[in-house]
Amino acid sequence: AFHRGEDLYGIDLVIEATGRLVNKYDLDVATVILLPDAGDLEYLSRLRARVEEINLTERCIFYCEPLPETAVLWQRADIVIRATNTDAGDSLTVLEALAGGTPAIASDCVKRNSAAHLFANRDSDSLTHVCKSVLDELNLNRQKLVDLKLPDNAGELIGLYYRLAGASQLAKSETGVL
Prior knowledge:
alpha/beta
């Protein structure tokens, strides 16, 4: 998928960052790219060609089947990257990773949870730098998440429903219509 003519999910950025981590910094890393709906197959073919071009064939896996549940995958990963160039608020992927104790790296295209590590939107150098920094201190970054308290969004939503229902009941009683 594309947003403003650019890879919406930042897959291109993740591939470039993986290439730099392996080829420039000599890190032993691999990337799994989840694409349950591959979408533009021509673009996917170009991404795969780029993976081959920078010698990442064995280190960059495209998984194109739907997964019924991903939170366990986030827990087993060393890091989770959300490289989107736009989002409708903080993403569930980032929050699930953080809740599972896995450092999350995300673009700064929207406000994110303060525990996430942010990189400059659509900037592969920034993504590479943040990934390297998080991986260099992986144990410390994981430890910081042990006591992380995420907002109770469900509780806030239920409270909103109760307030709206209460306001509705109050408005009906004032008009005499119940």
